[in-house]
Fold each of these.
Amino acid sequence: MSETTSTTATTAQARGSFRTPTGGRVDRTSPVTFTFAGVEHTGYRGDTLASALLADGVHQIGTSIKLGRPRGVGAAWAEDPSSLVQVEEPFPDPMLLASTVEVFDGLVADGVPGQGRLADIADSARYDSRHLHVDLLVVGAGPAGLQAALTAARSGARVALLDEQSEAGGSLLGSDELLDGRPALEWVADAVAELAAAPEVVHLQRTTVFGVYDDGFALAVERRTDHLGGAAPEGTSRQRVWRVRARRTVVAAGAHERPVVFTDNDRPGTMLAGSARTYLHRYGVLAGSRAVVFTTNDSAYRAAVDLADAGVHVAAVVDTRDVAPAHWAVELERRGVPLRTAQAVVGTRGVERVSAALVAPYDRAGLAAGARSSAGVEPEAIECDLLLVSGGWNPAVHLHSQARGKLAFDAGLGAFLPAERLEDLLVAGSAAGTFDLSSCLRQGGASAATALSELGLDVTAVPVPSAAEQPPSSSSSAPDLVWVVPDPSGDSSRQFVDVQRDATVADVQRALGAGLRSPEHVKRYTTIGTAHDQGKTSGVVTSGIIAELLGAAPDAVGTTTFRPPYTPVAFATLAGRDRGQLFDPVRTTSVHDWHVQAGAVWEDVGQWKRPRYYPLAGEDMETAVLRECAAARTGVGILDGSTLGKIDVQGPDAGVLLDRLYTNLMSSLAVGKVRYGVMCGADGMVIDDGTVLRVAEDRFLVMTTTGGAAKILEWMEEWHQTEWPELRVHLASVTEQWAAFPVVGPRSRDVIGAVFGAGGSEDGVDVSNEAFGFMTWQDTTLDGVPVRLARISFSGELAWEVHVDSRYALAVWERLIAAGAPYAITPYGTETMHVLRAEKGYPIIGQDTDGTVTPQDLGMAWVVSKKKPDFVGKRSFARAENQREDRKHLVGLLPVDRETLLPEGSQIIEHREDGVLPSVSETGPVPMLGHVTSSYRSAYLERPFALALVKGGRARVGELLHVPVKGRLVAVEVTSPVLVDPEGARRDG
Amino acid sequence: MQMIKCPWCGPREEVEYHYGGQAHVAYPAEPAALSDEEWAHYLFFRDNTRGLFAERWVHTAGCRRWFNAVRDTVTYRFHATYRPDEPRPVTA
Amino acid sequence: MTTVDAFSTDPADAVPHTPAAAAAGRLNGTPPRTPGADLPEHPDALWKNPEPKKAYDVVIVGGGGHGLATAHYLVKNHGITNVAVLEKGWLAGGNMARNTTLIRSNYLWDESAAIYEHSLKLWEGLEEDLGYPILFSQRGVLNLAHTLQDVRDSVRRVEANVLNGVDAEWIEPDEVRKICPIVNTSSDIRYPVLGATYQPRAGIAKHDYVGWGFARRIDEAGVDIIQNCEVTGFVRDGNRVTGVRTTRGDIACGTVALAAAGSTSVLTDMLGLRVPIQSHPLQALVSELLEPVHPTIVMSNAVHVYVSQAHKGELVMGAGVDAYNGYGQRGAFHIIERQMAAAVELFPVFARAHLLRTWGGIVDTTPDASPIVGRTPYDNVFLNCGWGTGGFKATPGLGWVFADTIANDEPHPYAAPFSLDRFVTGRLVDEHGAAAVAH
């Protein structure tokens, strides 16, 4: 923070002197102490940081990003382009607006010199979200919104009334209007009370609807504890996202006052006129002691009159128009406020705060004109510490525009207005360009009534309270449309269009001079509208300036696109609960806790947690895996394979469907048998593999890879439903229902026999090779629990898969473990599973394939039926590219040194006689033949080995190739992918 | 986020659905009879209409059933949803 | 990193030298410096807004980065200047204005690496070539691996990159932490970081500056940039297109080059040409300006994140592609919410950063996630499309290669693998599984 602010803040006479003795919505019985720019201040509950600082006479908030010029409070809410603060305590929050931050005890904040600062620690606050379905969403609890909500509530509709401020009332909070002869805020209080009592109404304050999307979907963020500081209740989410689905929406979001651009219009103390009125009425704060009001329309007169009545010396009202509104002229005269018509503020003086407004006759020639009528005329300096500006009002059309409603320029208002009624979104009140209170109320009620009757609901009309008499229209004057007051000397380089970006009229002129015409180009050239406020006040002004300079209509120039969010929303708020372990669901098997007890190291496989290996004390992965592998090859091991996808395929045409989807024939599989199969995409590339059990004539159990489970079920459904709906077949995932435990190794027969054999189970199974052949399955029970045993081997060893209802899985697993104890049964994880299968040359789809590999590439021509006339993928095998001899084939690689473990992913090149990797920079890219897909140390082979995809690999068996490993070339011999037991002798034990 | 009307379940949030590309592209009756070029067109070439587009959706997190929709690819608005065995409805 | 004297590419070195700054002066002596606050000023002259001529040797349809770069290299490398660039909206206002500006070349396949690396080399000299401060900042990219298969794929890509002459390395989590300390490399997140690939020469650039730099150069060279000029049809004569019908009148042409991402299919439909493209919404977002916190670019596939901190200090993120076809330049918000969850998961310090603005572009995707560049069945119509999320980084490389293809009436060797007929032969360049997170 700059020292100047501190100086200002600590000037004793300036502090505390701007609070009115009474009035305002702040709770004067609840003082709060906060720190801004290192100085302690006191405000009241109900204050914003801006109102409390203004009450202490502090106007400068920070400095501007490029030029380092002082920046102050420009408005009283989110349209404020300049009061950026960094909150430091209770938790660092970058870039909030002083005009929207509510004060609380212990708040510590600083001005932002352009960039906010993130905390260097994680945010421990909670965030959550809720869904809301309503008939009518009302955005904004000002007069129009309240009347709309009341109408809908009395009609019995489901209503959401969401408003971004701390309390309902909207513009009424910043005024002294009467409704039905009493203060308008009493009407507001009654309305709020009625809504609170209505059963179908959700009314939330501090809740900003920041985006409107398709089909009545709106998103809002509720700031639930920010205003409480340290008093925030434990366990309450800090912010909540509301996902609202509304059948109709009434946007009653109000309007933003529009500034007029003039030279040095950025000095603190320069403020939108209506905002000063809000500071007075809502916060009991005088934004200055000596004010100049500069306006092009009638609305600012109210501010002048109210401030004068509150004791501010209003040094002048400067109106660009030749004729002031008669009613207001009288009011000013009554208060002795000088009125200057046909004049304009052409500049200011001051350092960290405005000290004078420079006033001169208004030069109507406009920005594009050359010689200035005011040139050479010395402007008159009117001393002031507050310069209020009003260039008219811009309806808050953001949500209408986000919903892709058209906008049209209204020359009378000098603003863009909704130009069409959208089907499910209506705009009411000043957001629709209606500015008198009675009309706003009427329109709010009428919009709700229209919406509800369109929904077929009976409407109970709500009487519109009567607002005070407006000044007769004959006494008002049409607003002037002034974007920029030309600088008398023609220097537009300090005429700030976007004060946050330090972007000026000169920048716009330069952009147009460079050949740019589109406001999108001008925005990018000047950076106008790209800052924190996203051009809430600068956007329309820019379009106006472009139009004026090009001699075009603002309509023809248009605006840049309004995009969500309406106001900034914290990342964490949108992330909600979906973080950490809730970022993505964790899937665990029914034996998970056993694995935890056994000290498993985990691997994430899709959403599943799978044991990767089970280290004993002192073991690293390599040692553990070598031990686990040895157990499976020489004794017995057990794997939790429950994550394998399982699809129950039932129906008379089940076999037909499978025949069309697998490359091989499945319908010929006999009941009781098991067959391995491969599925391809229509492009002929392998997408999944697994075993298929024929359970009955009309029933198959399809096993998929762990990662492919959901995808393959969807794939089968897609073909069935969209291409072959005539097939009588039903598909269901039973992945979660069935646990699956491969029991693997020469001693597996002993274990399976002990548990399920004649001695172990009531309907004991004969586990001899003769009675229980390879690739067959049998059902049995264990203590009454159905169990299915299948002789399937993914390791080449004698093995059974034990399938059991997940609810009993842990008990069965423990029985197997107990029965295996005499044989030192060894639980093994995915790593050992991978080694065992790789030794046998069995590919893992997704590891040894990458979506560009056919079954033939894998050496599995045998799994591709020659008999079937068609199956998914078959036609693609005939394409030119699939006929090439140099396609990549799955092969084995043996490092010649018998030591090097090739990193998986390593690239493979031709063998180089010199054993040296050529320099890419000298000789260009080195041709690659393929890559290592799997690589392990083999306990069985007593050497490392790998699987690889190699161009023309099958023809290269026996050849030497090179694999670069950390800049060194490792010689490898190409082999068959099957390195263990190529005869298949071990599978029968 | 869209509200999409599943022909079986009624209107549900967009997040319950998966997209399935152009509708009414039948698997060729006899793929083997197609030229490479014809097969490539079946495999890879789909309309990419700007405007009303008949396309496939599946209610993944609901009934898991596929259906067709006519949607405007500019406004994203759904003009109709219908079952796969129904013809494309006439939409404005 | 290549820099030129006139401009610094390091935002930290950006010194205000704006006329406005000089004129305005500073009111309080030296204010706190805001790194990156002062982007280099744009020049006083960018381009003219000419009326279209009756005829051009080459008509480029699409005034985005690719169309402008193609015109630039037609002029620079081939001396072809009787060229019009037709833009239906505002110049460089499509994906050029909507992308997240990542530039990298660490693609898996040889064909991809060749053209993207060619492009990256051009990026390294582009500021000088264009005489425009494009703010090319080579801050490196980390592609995080979260699963063992990510690790395998990453190593595979790195090893291929190295043999293709692309700078790349595999780094372990502790090195990830050194390069980007704010990445959550602890083991207690849902998908812990197991390592990353690192391409130090990757970077970002200021997209508008790039588009305008090309535009200014070609405007100077006599190329007509014609905005608000939508192509409504083509005049055909047998296998040739002799003219282009536009909202600003008919324009005769010697050669037509299509470079209209987001509208490709609309144009090819007019030509009766089938192209395997699907157009999808792709969203992006920015935060407010923040003090420097993120020194590099981080991408993650499993935890879908792509984030960098741009020159002024804003966090720029690309979200996932919306699944459905869409030309609306907007997407669904649940994609953004998911993106935010991923961002905070990987970067806990981002929690209180604010989403300031979201927007959408249209990405033209192909079946193999690689572009289509080259000939069409028409003798004098050339096609460039289907870049998916890779278009921006390819801008100069494609411009060079496409201009060469047009000028020589023969696909440039780097373009040849990306011909339309690969979908018939099956010789795809499948970057799906390989390109890490798409961007």
Amino acid sequence: MPFKILKKQELVPTIHLMDISAPRIAKKAQPGQFVILRIDEKGERIPLTIADFDRGKGTITMIFQAVGKTTTQLSSLKAGDELLDFIGPLGNPAHILNEGTVILVGGGVGVAPVFPQARAFKEAGNKVISIIGARSANLLLWEDRMREVSDELYITTDDGTKGHHGFVTDIVKKIIEGGTKVDKVVAIGPPVMMRAVAGVTRPFNVKTIVSLNSIMVDGTGMCGACRVLVGNETKFACVDGPEFDAHLVDFTLLMNRLAMYQPEEKLAFEKYKCEREGCKC
Amino acid sequence: MLERQKMPEQDPKVRAANFNEVALGFTKEQAIEEAKRCLQCKKPKCMEGCPVEVKIPGFLKYITEGDFDSAIKEIKVDNALPAVCGRVCPQETQCEQVCILSKKGASVSIGRLERFVSDYERTKGVKVPHVRESTGKKVAVVGSGPAGLTAAADLAKMGHSVTIFEALHEAGGVLTYGIPEFRLPKEIVRAEVEYVKKLGVTILLDSVIGKIDTVDDLLSEFDAVFLGTGAGLPMFLNIDGENLNGVYSANEFLTRVNLMKSYMFPEYDTPIKKAKHVVVVGGGNVAMDSARCALRLGAEEVTIVYRRGEEEMPARAEEIEHAKEEGIKFRLLTNPVRIIGDAKNWVTHIECINMYLCEPDESGRCKPMPLAGTEHKIDADVVVIAVGTSPNPLVPRTTKGLEITKHGTVIAKENGATSRKGVYAGGDAVTGSATVISAMGAGKKAARAIDEFLRAK
């Protein structure tokens, strides 16, 4: 039962949007959950967080960055092409309650999974303060969509080409230190960013939630590849998460485990590029 | 008494470097000779030893006559997966153990003969048996492992409309993700799955029940549900260092190798760490499978660490033998204490302690106790933890009123009935990890009970 790609768009350089026709998954999907996909018979299973869903149209939207073999291959597909496998919705939905004031932090491609949460927090009656960051202005994602669902929106770029010159954490800190009563922070992005946000909110005791993107195979709790240490307890990100209390997550372990297959990933990517572009190797 | 026929096998040195099937199967002549050894007992003990009640003397008789078509037909009345059972059933503790010949010498090679006729049929083209007239009843089967496939096949033959929901992208459950190619070629699993489909069973892949649909969702569309969700949750040792890079659960290691074909990386995209020194912790078939996979991936040294002795090992004698022939090292009465890694979180060693056995515990096995002061390190750049699995909680967590034990297994009666009306369960989901054939037996019993339930409805 292949899954049809209905829309494919490069939003900013290397970051792509894809709408997949998957009515059964769209019917059940919730913010915070993810899907696992496999492109073809020889493909690996990769998890991607759900960026949006449309129950009426029966679609799931994913946003991903082409960084390795599988994501680059995925980015080469077009509307009308098919994915061999598309599994979900996996993981636990985000806890969306009316908590008061919520800061949503999205870094890089992490802005995408933050969006449905921002929208849901807003719909639940919260004051939504969003902070989105990127390396550079041309890599900034979904500013318009985030603005629509936020009471306040801050932009940061590492190189200062747009918004605040610096990191998302600078703004988080400023808001909390400025005396705004913040009831919850949700941060999704690169592990370094999530760790930094946790570091900023910890002294103020502000409940902080992160979504962990560990390596997965089945995504149903069967293999334990996605083991993470939370409050000194081993958890499976796929079934116990993907969201956890940021103040309890062992980010060093997360980053070490994410690097587990770096040499293999490099090899697979180089082989793929060779096959596609032809080379002298 | 006729001598037991030897089944040809790949040479240990050759097979340790490939993923092809180890056993090569009987020739026609060998099969006939072997079947002739059967005494055709009036009260065949072997049948009592078979969890799915295959009419063993009957099919053996056909083999002696060279009528292999009738032989496989006879088996398939009771067993939908004979090519699987002929390969992975522990016959030595079931049909063959109670075979009268085993008292005087060697039992009839029932399993190998079952394998022979099912292979004969597969190369020739599989016939689909008569399916009863449609009852108009619909049954959902959750999981396409041995329990689910058996229940589905039997229910389809009874005339019910059956849909299997499988979480992974390929059907077969543990037959596909767990048992390696060299013991059970995936082409054979696919052929058995095809046969079940030909009986009229629909298989929906990529469907994680508990997520995409709950059991209650299924009950609004189907008249009954069978849960054959297996025991897919890996157990760890809960010792230091288990989250180091290079430490795998056996489930992950085997899934990468078997389901994802990482032994063919980079042709296939899923990577696996190729290591020099691999240590596998555990003494069951899964530990043997992991060790033998590691060897085939090119490890220089593969060591099985097990806290009891060889006699206590739950693995089949044949698997232990095969592992030894291939050069797997065994460190018995040895138990891991902690796993040691380097600054980059990579495993380098596993620290173990010697054990001794004292009085038998509740399980009837001798309890292993550590010998103080015998701590020692073993080099390891990959460690595989194969100390068992427990049922996946996804379905129980999302099914109100489905009672489970404290170990997470679904509580079911002998016939598979659970605490929820119309919901039946069987296999590892109920018993915790056991054998393929016991799961099939449970699937069969549940199919009968579901049939009665549907006809009374």
